[in-house]
Design brief:
The structure holds two protein chains of two kinds. Chain A is α/β, with parallel strands linked by helices. Chain A contains 19 helices and ten strands. Chain B has helices at about 15-25, 30-60, 70-120, 120-125, 130-170, 175, 180-220, 220-225, 230-255, 260-285, 290-330, 390-400, 420-425, 440-445, 455-465, 470-475, 490-505, 520-535, 545-550, 570-575, 580-585; strands spanning about 350-360, 370-375, 380-385, 405-410, 415, 430, 440, 480, 510-515, 540-545, 555-560, 565-570. In chain B, the strands form three sheets. Chain B has a six-stranded mixed sheet, sandwiched between helices. In chain B, strands 2-1-4-5 form a four-stranded antiparallel sheet, with no helix packed on it. Chain B has a two-stranded antiparallel sheet with strand order 7-8. Classes of the chains: A alpha/beta, B alpha/beta.
Chain lengths: ~600, ~600
Amino acid sequence: MKLILEYLKKFRGAVILAMLIKLSGTLGELLIPYILEHLIDHVVPGRKLLPVLLWGAVMLGLALLVRFLNVTANRMAVKVSRDSTYEIRQRLFEKTLRLSGGQMDAFGLPSLISRMTSDSYNVQNFIRAGQTIGIRAPIMLVGGIIITLTMDVGLASILCIMSPIMLAIIATISWKGIPLFHRVQQGMDDIVRTMRENITGIRVVKALSREPHEVERFRAVNEEMTKRDLRASVLMALPGPIMQLFLNGGLTLVVLIGARRVNAGVTEPGVILAFLTYFNMILMGVMALNRVFIMMSRANASAGRIAAVIDAPEELLPLPEEEAAHTEKEGFIVFDDVTFSYGEEEETEDKQEAFAGEGRHACLSHIDFAMKKGGSLGIIGATGSGKTSLINLLMRFYEADEGAVFVDGKDVRTYACDDLRRRFGVVFQNDVIFADTLRENIVFGRDVDEARLRQAAEEAQAYDFIDAYEEKFDHEAVIRGANLSGGQKQRVLISRALAGHPDILILDDSSSALDYRTDANLRAAIRENYPDVTLIVIAQRASSIMALDDILVLDEGRVIGHGTHEELQKTCETYAEICRTQMGEVSA
Amino acid sequence: MARRDSVMKKPKDARGALKRLVRYLGPFLAVIGVVFVLCVASNLLALYGPKLAGLAINEAAAGKGKVDFAKVWYYAKRMLACYVASSLLSIGISVSMMTVSKRIANRMRADVFAKLMKLPVGFFDRNQAGDIISRVSYDIDVISTCLATDITAILTSLVTVIGSFVMMVVISPLLALTMLITVPAAIVYTAKMRKITQPRYVKRSKSYGTMNGFVEEMFSGQKTIAAYAYGDQVNGKFDGINETAANAFYDAEYYGCTMGPTVGAINNTGLGLIAVFGSVLFMSGKITLGNISSFVLYSRKFSGPINEIANIVNELFSALAAAERVFGLLDEPEESADAEGAHELTDVRGEVDLSHVAFGYEAGKTILHDLSLHADAGKLVAIVGPTGAGKTTIINLLMRFYDADAGHIAIDGHDIYECTRKSVRGAYAMVLQDTWVFSGTIFDNIAYGKEGATMDEVVAAAKAARIHGFIMKQPKGYQTVLSEDGGNISKGQKQLLTIARAMLYNAPMLILDEATSNVDTETEREIQRAMRELMKDRTCFVIAHRLSTIKNADWILVLDHGDVVEQGTHGSLLEQKGFYHRLYVSQFE
């Protein structure tokens, strides 16, 4: 809620004005039945046509004025809601792009997306409705009660007693309903999961002829879901009729007590009539107030989730020189006794989307090596052995727990992040192609001219297939590059990495979909055209790295082998084993 | 991602969908009939209330000291009784309609699922899981919501509108004339507004869809964006998209937010007109005060449902469109029934013959042209070829996931198309590259193929598959619950689990998709050992990647572009110096 107020501050004037206008509009609305009462009780008995018409005209005029005021206030509220949500979304988006790897993991990708979408809608709706219904509902309720009080205290007390009771009943039912609906949602999740399992595993189910078993399994989750659904729905079917009953019961009381009071001469018949109308208004006020409460609690939760991201501390700021680490080691890239873990396991909504690209607990311990400028390094090891974590530290998506990482003689933490990363050209494993032209996917907002673009594509062995498109580089890729083959995607990604003339080129498992010849051509092109580039290649296959200057073999976050291909064949049993099994493998 | 717009979707064959929907109502017709009667009764009672209120007020209007309390009391009692009865009835109606609609949703889900189990594998190859699931998670929900609320809402609205109109005319035909001004005004206004707002709401949904898509795409690529310091450009792009979405929202709501106040103004105008004309009529003695108040109440009741009917019609149409999607699924052709007189395949030795088999996934696009093959019992047939060459096609035919267009496949000399599908499939154990585990215990996952398997059997299979040690290291051993897609165990262990499952299944023949998986060498070795164990003494069809497997094969099928280009033994194929030779050499260049 604090977040909402903070963003509304800028529009304070507009919000207050809109609320005032809404207030007068609602008060005008409340006046109309009052006039009706006056007309019937005080004007009609005079039996003169002119005053009747006059009061009628007043009612008509008031109706139009009320519409004008309400529409104006609503439109102002819409405008404020548009402007403030626009800003909240922009801030949230920009901040999300700046989050550190650790923060990304902690929030989780699906959760970040839903904060950006459904949470921002909830906030938007509340900002819009809060200014209008939020004013209208309590005014209707309180104003209605006050006006009826001025008309007839005795009759109005019926309302005064009933309103809070009604409000309490509705609120109780709604609050009770929320956890029930949560359970319904879980039931639905079970149904979806069972279906998804059967769809993905249909071959196994059919091969083993387990269809009857699966039908039975589905029946169980289906029944459970229906049971929960019924319980929640039946509960939520209650408020409407109950409200009606209360309202109508109140009406009957008004008529009864009203008759008594008319008889006693303390009230007029027209008052009873006006009461009937106010009753309707008050009921609507109660219902609307309930809606506002529900909306508010939802918006409050959403605003909290948004604020958690926006207010997340800025990590990865440059470290002042005097706090920087220093190293004795010579080299362009230096890992000086680096130990790292992804930290405590945090409950994210979907583990498979983990940002790290590897297991959460993957750790690095005492990694110690140096590379000289223009050198090349291959990293090999099983899934989860920490290969990608090395890159995460080198490019400062995460920070080492112990030891330090150096690029060009400086602790990576002393660079401004963007300055550090501009030195790199990188292809991550499962890297993304964006829905844009191939040109933009390669150029990526950098200062890359046409000749450079073409050269990079040629070196990455991508030019031929791009040139075959009618639109050449203006060919549009769809989301995640789904209209490109695996090999084409990798070649575009490598073009992107090369186009910026990086000091350091990192290829993380990024030539796996290339056939042997393309892969060889690519390696030759890099050697020939980028003699100064410092190259790091992460691979599953020994053949992709065996020609490099230096190879690191990782196992469970430790370096268990370091040397050239020939050396490792002799010194590192695991490496020799990898080579043996992989050479006995045909894959085309 | 299947994007769904909230816009009204017109069903193509509304009548057909409606008819079938009504069939689902069948078992509940008696309940629905009662609900109909109750609904009319409840609303008539609710309508009678204001009339009684008017009569009571008439009595009260007699003035100071002249009120006949007996009569007021009489009307008030009746009034209250009407309202209480009406409220109770409407609770009863809601609850029973709710029950009916949820039971129907339950039936529909069960029907859809049972249907899925009968569909051929090809259906799942052609359709996206998300799309199939959305029929159950979204479409059936739409239908059930519509059944639960809209049917009663329509009835209520109709009874209310007609009833209150009749009552107004009865009370005072002259005063009812005021309705001639307000009702058409309301109808014309809402119709006009719909025309203005509808396309704007569509535009708003679309621009939100675009924004969501963009956000999802960029957040998934956050690391890449950070790596290339590309954030400013992306922020700039988002700014444009964000602004478009904000403006689309404003544009739609700018008009949309006038609806409420305007309808309110029309109602208030109606109230003013009733007040003036009512007063005039009252002065000329043509109407009583009580009648004016009844009339006011009826006029409010009358205008309520008019707005609502348009919404309900919208919902009804989208429910029919949803029903059509569900019925479309239920109408998919099922896996053909077993041939007449099909017999069970028993005591399979494992001799497989394919003769002149032709097949294509789509009519007119034959990819296997004329495949003949003989595999003796206990032999190993390797299927090799580049990715996308159609290696799985042969497996699909052997398992009868698809049926050949021409030619014969026989097991031990029995044409498989004359055997029951179940017994043909039962003759093979299958280990696929896409390992499949479901959310359940490890025990359940291994025992999946053999109903009533004992713990001893499962442990024996796990030991043979070399996964027993790993399982015992889990906190709950065999009772450890795996999550959907087995996210909590590694890919290699998943593979070992499915091997254990196949071990336990113990079929005379084996279909194996040898994966080049990204698993560590240790697990890799375990998998190879387990697979070798599994292949022992069985007729095996292996999609092979490892040289050792291929060299050991008794027969090799070489595929390219969906067709068998060569077949023979390793030696004979190398001698041919053809496709296989090139494939072999390219790897060991």
